[in-house]
Design goal:
heterodimer, A: mainly alpha, MetI-like fold, 2 domains, 13 helices, 0% strand, B: mainly alpha
Chain lengths: 282, 267
């Protein structure tokens, strides 16, 4: 009997903490679908009277500058975010696969090299942002996709290398040796044997790089300043400075910004944990 | 950057960029704004990080063994995946003075509406709450996974010896979790030192400079207001040095050599 009561209490506490943790997300979600009069109301509206798409389409009234935050306004930023995050994730995974393989198999560079890679992921971006700004403004790279892809590649590749080393280490060397006996070269065995076997690791590395470049804020804020290369998070930041913000359309933009990341994260959560803790937890 | 940190380079003025030695570094120690920004960053480390550790560990114990724990774990993952810019924006709506749900809930308890971002104390606690909201799930996730990986036989042996509940936790599970707790702690401290986007999205360092963090202040003097790149660089250099020290400690804890099987190759 006592056991049952503690179980029920635990359940209640667990569910209420879940509600607290998810409430901000829920709020963005419903605000994105609220008709304009319900953005600002007291008491707050917890379930919109009707779900409207006008926040996404920008067809609502223009009192709060709806037109500037409409879908047409978001699209260039969405395009920038997708291009930058996708290229970063693909290129970094490609480079990392080769680097991680050689570290895993030949132990090249030893502990120092591997440790140096991982420290790239941990250092504060503000430290590189200011010098990057000076350099990029001299070589006229500001406001281009490349201005964000290049600095994003550094931590993304470092993290992917780290993640992939732990995956490659788990593939027994004997399998490769069998491939050599069958006449495969080192490169061939890497491409046809090792890579397919570590497919989940490659996917996790790519997704993690994607998520991090997608959400990055500081560098994007400093190195870009218009629709030609700026990403979605910074776009959100630009429209939030006023006292009365157009909550509906901004929530719609916020929803678009966070949805891909959440979906990816839920699908790949098992490998993400390994990546996020630098392999401390398998 | 290290060179610029010794110069008075200021992109808004001409004829700057001369070498001024350690002038910028001395200025940091005399600048009350820099001191308050560093102070608030330290406050985040001292309050938010321990709270996240405790809550995360507590949650992992709470949810373990409940039916539907997998779903709960997945749902708890969401706050930490949300880009900080979006999270900050969502919280800004919640904290709103007139229309925010938080003041609405508080009114049930007879609490007058709070101008969350208007007073230094409130704004600081608001930021603390956001950070705790976003990163408790991170600690939870690690602890949850670590608990699952604990060697069963040791725990069973403890149970046979009559340990249960608190005793089991204090004397068997906690010592086993210790290394991973340290790693999590360091990862959190390193990341909190970089806090930037949340500040930018919600308080913009205000009111005054109550919620300005180290990174945010460096951004403000270096880019957004002053273009005083020399001074901003000096601030970043110090932050960089602190981070490198922490990262090195983390490296030792992670014991990379073992992780990569390097010790075997060397021996």
């Amino acid at each position: 009997m006592k056991k049952k009561i503690t179980y029920v209490i635990r359940y209640i506490v667990a569910v209420s903490s879940l509600i607290i943790f998810l409430f901000p997300i829920y709020w963005i979600f419903i605000t994105a679908f609220k008709p304009e009069p319900e953005w600002f109301s007291m008491p707050p509206i917890f379930w919109p009277s009707k779900f409207t798409l006008s926040n996404f389409l920008g067809t609502g009234s223009s009192t709060f500058g709806t037109t500037t935050t409409s879908i047409a306004g978001i699209l260039p930023f969405l395009r920038n975010s997708i291009v930058i995050a996708t290229i970063t994730s693909l290129v970094s995974t490609f480079i990392a696969a080769f680097a991680a393989y050689s570290i895993s198999r030949t132990k090249i560079g030893g502990t120092k090299l591997a440790g140096w890679f991982i420290s790239m992921r941990l250092l504060p971006p503000i430290a590189s942002a200011i010098p990057l700004y000076v350099i990029f403004s001299k070589i006229k790279l500001l406001n281009t996709w490349l201005a964000l892809i290049l600095p994003y590649l550094v931590p993304a590749t470092a993290l992917s290398i780290w993640l992939l080393i732990s995956f490659f280490n788990e593939i027994p060397q004997e399998i490769e040796e069998a491939a050599y006996i069958d006449g495969a070269s080192r490169v061939k065995s890497f491409i046809y044997v090792v890579l397919p076997l570590s497919a989940p690791g490659l996917a996790a590395a790519a997704i993690l790089a994607f998520i991090q470049s997608w959400g990055e804020f500081l560098l994007a804020l400093i190195l870009t300043n218009n629709a030609s290369a700026q990403t979605l998070p910074v776009y959100l930041g630009r429209y939030i400075t006023g006292w009365r913000v157009a909550w509906g359309p901004l929530s719609a933009a916020g929803l678009v910004t966070m949805l891909p990341v959440i979906i990816f994260a839920l699908i790949f959560q098992r490998y993400l944990i390994r990546g996020l803790t630098l392999g401390a937890v398998k | 950057m290290i060179y610029t940190s010794f110069t008075n380079l200021d992109l808004s003025k001409t004829g700057t960029g001369k070498f001024i030695g350690v002038g910028n570094y001395i200025e940091i120690f005399q600048d009350p704004l820099a001191r308050s920004s560093i102070g608030f960053t330290v406050m985040l480390v001292l309050i938010a990080v321990p709270t996240e550790m405790l809550l995360g560990l507590g949650l992992s114990y709470l949810i373990r063994g409940l039916s539907g724990e997998k779903i709960m774990r997945s749902l708890l993952l969401i706050p930490m995946m949300v880009p900080a810019a979006v999270g900050g924006f969502g919280w800004k709506m919640l904290y709103n003075f007139m229309f925010g749900p938080i003041n609405y809930f508080l009114s049930f308890f007879g609490i007058q509406p709070i101008t969350w971002f208007g007073k230094a104390n409130y704004a600081q606690s608001a930021i603390l709450i956001i950070d705790i909201w976003q990163w408790t799930p991170f600690v939870f996730l690690i602890m949850y996974a670590a608990l699952q990986a604990l060697p069963r036989d040791i725990i069973d042996a403890g149970k046979v010896d009559g340990a249960n509940g608190w005793k089991l936790f204090l004397h068997i599970e906690l010592p086993l979790l210790k290394p991973i707790l340290y790693v999590t702690l360091l990862l959190r401290v390193i990341d909190v030192l970089k806090t930037f986007d949340i500040i930018y999205m919600t308080t913009y360092g205000g009111p005054g400079s109550a919620t300005s963090t180290w990174s945010f202040y460096a951004y403000k003097v270096g880019v957004s207001y002053g273009w005083n790149i020399g001074y901003g660089s000096a601030l970043s250099v110090i932050l960089l040095i602190v981070s490198i020290l922490l990262v090195n400690t983390l490296m030792k804890l992670l014991n990379i050599g073992k992780e990569l099987g390097l010790s075997k190759a060397e021996g």
